């Protein structure tokens, strides 16, 4: 049974997405033929539209928006209960500013291939990262690529429990958790890779208290401070001796004392292509690329040879008739 398609466009305060839809919206609607279409506005934010699509159940939901919109939509869908989420087919179509020149030029646009992904692609449950912490109530967030954690207290005493490993760290540090290397998108995902059981990699950068000068620079590792890998695993628990752990997440404004990170297997039913769309070449190479000189010379030589052969054959035929 074919699932009804619910298409959501997050164009509110997204001029790039609005420009794309002005150019290609009619073709997208004609090709995908959604049973429902909704666009974000002041009264209809993305959170409300996605919640409506989830609670109605058993749908194919495609979100078109900026990478930030895709990340928000991902977190909203993951907050739904398992029964509602598993009844969906979810497709993410991120639009970057760097992609707009390609989408505006029909000769190099990949719109046809992209639409084919959502029409003929299949759905595969993929793994995600789940983060839980007390602030002061139990809060839950979900991540795709990974997350960053830091401590800026020189007297901090922090312990890392990574699967069976027990690690101890004193003072300030930056911790980076890496999971999926691909961006959260239905377009370039490798079909056989999301189904494999993955592990998150945990990296640590030790810092000196004197090097902490700017809140912006806190998240930028210095070149002379090497990053070390603590290990890989499926569960990580970090405990501080007080609220010394800060998350690089706009939703978490206050430091926390402890947090728990784990991989949730087959948690998101993501639409992926049968064959991933190739990475787009640069605009300069697409517009001004010429054939290799050797190929051009060979083609010209073959054309000249064919023309000479035709002339010789015609002259030979005339000489035969004259004799």
Describe what you observe in this structure.
It is a single chain. This protein is of the alpha+beta class and 323 residues long. A hairpin with a 2-residue loop joins strand 8 (157-162) and strand 9. The protein is built from eight helices and 15 strands. Residues 281-297 have low confidence and may be disordered. It has three domains: 5-121 and 273-286, Rossmann fold; 128-267, Tumour Suppressor Smad4 (Sandwich), CATH 2.60.200; 290-322.
Secondary structure elements and their pairing?
Blueprint: E1 5-9, H1 15-32, E2 36-39, H2 46-56, E3 60-65, H3 67-79, H4 82-86, E4 89-94, H5 100-104, H6 111-120, E5 122-134, E6 138-143, E7 146-151, E8 157-162, E9 165-170, E10 173-178, E11 200-206, E12 228-233, E13 235-239, E14 246-247, E15 258-272, H7 283-288, H8 293-322
Parallel strand pairs: 1-2, 1-3, 3-4
Antiparallel strand pairs: 5-6, 5-15, 7-10, 7-14, 8-9, 8-13, 10-11, 11-12, 13-15
Helix pairs in contact: 1-6, 2-3
